[in-house]
UniProtKB/TrEMBL annotation:
Gene3D superfamilies, per database record: Glucose Permease (Domain IIA)
A Pfam family reported for this protein in Swiss-Prot or TrEMBL: Peptidase_M23
Family annotation (CDD domains): M23_peptidase (cd12797)
Protein name in UniProt: M23 family metallopeptidase
Cited InterPro entries: Cell_wall_metabolism_enzyme (IPR050570), Dup_hybrid_motif (IPR011055), M23ase_b-sheet_dom (IPR016047)
Record-annotated M23ase beta-sheet core domain positions: 1-45
Cross-referenced PANTHER family: M23 FAMILY METALLOPEPTIDASE, PEPTIDASE-RELATED
Molecular function per GO: metalloendopeptidase activity
Organism this protein belongs to: Pseudoramibacter porci
Amino acid sequence: LSEIKVEKGQHIRQGETLGLVGKTGRVTGPHLHWGMSLNNARVDPQLFLTTTH
């Protein structure tokens, strides 16, 4: 992230901006690698995502 917009432990709402994405190193464009943990164990973030089409 080029800028973090939230703090650890902060409650967030759907649609809220968590941070801004930038690019560094040998990349072709801005992108983000992210993960989640629950009770100090890494979990698959997709378990918490819903898709609407």
